[in-house]
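TA notes, week 10

Several of you asked for a full example with nothing omitted. So below is the full record: structure tokens for the whole chain, then the designed sequence directly under it. When grading your own attempts, check the secondary structure regions first.
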């Protein structure tokens, strides 16, 4: 199965409805009818991938905005991105 890596170009899928609820981003996949809560940082990531963005670029932007080391950001973000990729919330741009 395909997975998201540092060099992957990713973006949000168009069939996702998202809203801010008390500082956390909640979403619904309109194809599956499933709801998701991706929290505060997940919401920041969601905002950053409105347009196709390389994961490396996303890591740089997050380390600039939040006090986190690049290695820790990479270790945290790749599993998160792969999880929401498997849930069909984002896609890899080819």
């Amino acid at each position: 199965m395909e997975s998201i890596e540092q060099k992957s170009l990713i973006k949000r899928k168009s069939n996702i409805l998202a809203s801010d609820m008390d500082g956390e981003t909640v979403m619904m996949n309109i194809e599956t009818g499933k709801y998701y809560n991706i929290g505060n940082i997940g919401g920041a990531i969601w905002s950053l991938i409105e347009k196709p963005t390389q994961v490396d670029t996303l890591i740089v932007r997050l380390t600039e905005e939040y006090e986190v080391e690049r290695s820790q950001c990479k270790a945290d973000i790749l599993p998160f991105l792969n999880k929401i990729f498997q849930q069909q919330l984002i896609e890899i741009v080819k």
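The radius of gyration is 13 Å. Use that as a sanity check on your answer.
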